[in-house]
Each structure stands twice: as C-alpha cells, then as structure tokens.
Write a structure and sequence with these properties.
Length: 177
C-alpha cells in the first residue's frame, strides 16, 4: 500500500502496467500497490491527463487477475448487497474514505472539473468495485470498508502472485536488448 507522495515509477513498472492494460500506460504518477512479487497492481494516475482530460480515478486497478476476480463479484450481483451495508458506522467510514481519496489526489493536483468527485460511487453509492478495491489496496485495510470487503470476497489476493511469468520473461529480455 502506498499513498502520495510516490516514488517515480520505474521504466520497468510502466512496461509492466502497459502489458497489463494492453495499451501504453500514460500519466502514471506512482505505483500505489504491488503484488508480493513486486509487480504493480494499482497505479496512481495524474488528475489531469497530459491531453488535458480531467481524470478522477486516482487509484486504478491494473492487475489482470485482480480485475477479473472483481468483475466476477460484479457479475454475481454483489453490488446491491454492498450498497445495503452503507448505514451507520460503515456509511461514515465510506464517506471518510471518499474524503481521503480526494485529499490524496489533490496532493498531486487540484482539478476544478472533478472537485468533490472521487470514484466507485463514493461517498454514498456502490458503482464500481474495481475502483473501490483499487483504493483499498492503495490505502491499506481499515480505510475503505466496501473495498476491503470486496477484496476479501474476491478470488484474488495481493499475497498470492498470479502474474504471468512468460510475459515478464519476454519483456525482460526485450528490455535488455
Ligand atoms: Zn506477482
């Protein structure tokens, strides 16, 4: 788990994220969470992309096995169940998570077009478990209650490496040449 300020991502990190996304990773300001093997699992993206587009999703889940496992939770129809938990103390924690998310992003840059907007449906809805799990992995346990729970229920764990070894071997030799 890593919150700003971030170390600059290495060229290897950017290459790995680009492979995970299947397109060139752009405007990455830091690696907010990693697999036990060290590969990025969550990237932090500049709040205004270099082409000028405002980008509210500061924490973005990039790991293919993680995104697939979270997609399964959504496909299983778990979102209304998560949303139903947003009462009392959990609702308060979720709102605090929303505020921390925006504070983290605004420590990099304040972008007026996305002021007060976080991600994933925060502060009072559950719209995207990928965004909430991304935040939970970046912030660490105990910050985003819905992200924590979704991560716990998913078939993926940051403690078990599911990175594809052939892909990283190919890229390492490509980078070395
Ligand atoms: Zn790994």
């Amino acid at each position: 788990m890593t919150r700003p300020p971030f170390d600059a991502p290495s060229p290897e990190d950017i290459a790995t994220v680009s492979r995970q996304l299947g397109r060139p990773a752009r405007d990455v300001v830091g690696i907010a969470a990693r697999c036990v093997c060290g590969a990025p699992t969550v990237v932090s993206t500049r709040p205004r992309l270099s082409d000028g587009t405002p980008f509210p999703t500061f924490y973005y889940l990039t790991h293919p096995a993680a995104t697939a496992a979270v997609s399964t939770l959504e496909a299983e129809g778990q979102m209304p169940g998560f949303a139903a938990l947003l009462v009392g103390e959990v609702a308060e924690q979720y709102r605090a998570a929303h505020e921390q998310y925006i504070a983290d992003r605004e420590s990099i840059a304040v972008v007026d077009e996305i002021a007060g907007i976080s991600a994933g449906g925060m502060p009072d809805r559950v719209k995207c478990l990928h965004a909430l799990v991304g935040h939970a992995l970046a912030a660490g346990p105990g910050v985003n209650p819905i992200g924590d729970l979704a991560l716990e229920r998913s078939a993926w764990s940051p403690l078990v490496c599911e990175c594809v070894p052939e892909v990283s071997t190919v890229s390492t030799s490509a980078e070395a040449s």
